[in-house]
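Fold this: Transcriptional regulator
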Amino acid sequence: MNPLLKHRTLSAAVLDQLRKAILDGTYPAGAQLRQDALAEAFRVSRIPIREALFQLDAEGLVRFVPQKGAVVAELSTEEISDVFELRRLLEPRLLARSIPSLDAGDFARLDALHAQMVAATAANDLGRWGQINADFHMALYARAGLPRSLTIVHGLLQASDRYTRVHLGDVAGMGIAGMQRAVSEHAALADLSRAGDIAAACGFLDQHILTVHEDLLRELERSQREAMT
């Protein structure tokens, strides 16, 4: 194997595993991510660890703090609002550009992803659910012809996954209801897109993102109140 390709493959694998560990709470908010300890755990040099941490910093999952190095980013209302407001700006634009070019194969993929989301909801598999959710949104926008915007949105969806796990993980409260609602709304988005109703689909998408945003802010505020009592 080409040494450069091998290095890139290794770095990508480390990045994927670190991202998953942050999203599933293995490394909670505020946890220090020491490069030497991670390198030993992954049995790699510090180079792919450093590259992965810089990428996670770009994604908003990690912050570099003086005297401490890389730490898992805290959840905050400002960060959540930044991510979801950007999504509301970019995703309806992508959907409007994509809908006219979506074909039968694209809708078959959307239907398959929706079926997978139904199954993940039934199994309460949050890790799988979050990935399917991101894949579904990216499949909706696949024909937009705007690769730079798609790359940005992909990163925003990854950041959103961490926040939605906080909300949907509250199974005793709103978690299951939130997952079921999202499944229903994704079906509606696919139907509106299939019908070619661009205005209705984009309006529905904007409301879909806004609803999740508002739910997350309420959940974070509730958690903060409980932590203070």
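The chain has two domains: 3-72, 77-228. The domain at 77-228 is CATH 1.20.120.530 (Four Helix Bundle (Hemerythrin (Met), subunit A)).
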